[in-house]
Structure formats: structure tokens, C-alpha cells
Amino acid sequence: MMFWTVVAIAVIFGGLYATRSNVLLYELVEEDSVSGLPIWTLLHPLRDRSPERSAEEILRILQSGRIEEALSKFPWKSADRKSGIMAEEAYHPIQSWKLVSRVDSPGTVELYYSVSRHSKSGKVFSSPMWITLERSASAASWRPVKFDVVY
């Protein structure tokens, strides 16, 4: 009995290791979802988490209230868009976040978060946030390139 348990565990971990490049193991998306974010996701436990660490650094900076510092990491096509997001981030500060989904393509990772916020009026709500990162072939680190959020 013990032998077969060890074999089963070895097969499971071997399978996970062999499929580590598949970031999503399973995703349940509600068809009429407005946000398009999945209800439930099973992310691969052996995935490369370096892009997630880069994005979470930005989220921690936002959570600490250093909004200008966090948003200056992104290239902005519109100064008005950046200033609008800065105002909203100040009014609806981040309390916590949860990685909901992730889409990988060569050199790019899109991370989808559910962010818990509270407004200055005391209202608590959840909002979706998308952070896109890129890595060039020569660079070892991930560079933030796009920030989208719905308040």
C-alpha cells in the first residue's frame, strides 16, 4: 500500500513538473460576466512566479499610498489618464488583492487581479485590475507596460 502511494505521489509531481510551462491548470469563467474575469482558477503550483512578484511590488507601493511612484513605472500615452487613475487610487485605496488569472505569451504576461478597496466615505468594494509585463530576450527582469483598472 505504501509503495503505491509513493508511486502515485511521484507520478503527480512528475506530471506537474513536466507541465510547468502551462500556467493555468483550470479556469471557470461565467458566461455573462461583465468583467470577463474567471470565477475560479487553478494556477500551476510550479509556474514561474517572477512576473507576479514584479506586479505585487507595484501593488504594495500602491497600497502604501505612494501612487505617483507606482504609476511612474508604466509608460502612459495620456497624461490625463494617468492623473485620473492617480485621483481614483487616492480616493479608493487598495486594501488587498488576489491573483485571479494569468495569460502568458512569448515575452509578455497579463495578470488579472481582484482588488479589495475602500473609499474615503467608508464603502468597501472589489474591483478588477490588469497589469501587463514584458521581458525582452536579453533582460532577466519583467518591465510593467500596461495598467488597467475599473473602479
Question: What's the quick description here?
Answer:
By secondary structure, the chain is an alpha+beta fold. It has helices at 2-18, 50-63, 67-71, 79-91; strands at 24-28, 40-43, 94-105, 108-118, 124-134, 143-149.
Describe this structure in words.
With 151 residues, the protein is an alpha+beta fold. It has a single domain, classed as Nuclear Transport Factor 2, Chain: A (Roll), CATH 3.10.450.50. 32% of the residues lie in helices and 33% in strands. The protein contains 4 helices and 6 strands; from the N terminus they run H-E-E-H-H-H-E-E-E-E. It has helices at 2-18, 50-63, 67-71, 79-91, and strands spanning 24-28, 40-43, 94-105, 108-118, 124-134, 143-149. The protein has a 4-stranded antiparallel β-sheet with strand order 3-4-5-6. Strands 1-2 form a two-stranded antiparallel sheet. The chain is globular and about 60 Å long. The termini are far apart. The model has no long low-confidence stretch (mean pLDDT 85).
Structural class, from helix and strand content? alpha+beta
Question: Per DSSP, what share of the residues sits in E-state strands of 2 or more residues?
Answer: 25-35%
Per DSSP E runs of 2 or more residues, the count of β-strands stands at 6
User: Which of globular, elongated, flat, extended, rod-shaped describes the shape?
Assistant: globular
Cα-to-Cα separation, first versus last residue = 54 Å
Average pLDDT, to the nearest integer? 85
- Largest beta-sheet details: 4 strands, antiparallel
CATH topology description: Nuclear Transport Factor 2, Chain: A
Strand order of the biggest β-sheet: 3-4-5-6
CATH C-level label: Alpha Beta
Assign the CATH architecture. Answer: Roll
